Amino acid sequence: MSPLLFLIPIALTLGSLGVLAFLWSLRNGQYDDLDGAAERIFLDNDSVEIFHDA
């Protein structure tokens, strides 16, 4: 019974920290552009600029 008195508050604290981190990420717009990364693969980025010291 003694380990449960120690582990249950730790589990509740870590769970609430996870929920708070998720809510923080929602408010800061981390999930606003869900299609951007999926569509970025179709962009043509073959042009590479090479800089020379002249």
Description:
- The chain is an all-alpha fold.
- The mean pLDDT is 85.
Question: What characteristics describe this protein?
Answer:
54 residues, 0% strand, mainly alpha, 2 helices, single chain
Percent range for β-strand residues: under 5%
Structural class: mainly alpha
Overall number of strands: 0
Question: Compute the gyration radius: what is it?
Answer: 23 Å
Oligomeric nature of the chains: single chain
| Shape field | elongated
Helical content, roughly? 55-70%
* Nearest-integer average pLDDT: 85
Q: What is the chain-wise order of helices and strands? A: HH
Q: What is the number of helices?
A: 2
Q: Distance N terminus to C terminus?
A: 76 Å
Largest sheet: none
- Low-pLDDT stretches are none
Topology (elements, then pairings):
Elements: H1 2-27, H2 36-39
What's the short story on this structure?
With 54 residues, this protein is mainly alpha-helical. It is built from two helices and no strands. The longest helix is centred in the N-terminal third of the chain and has 26 residues.
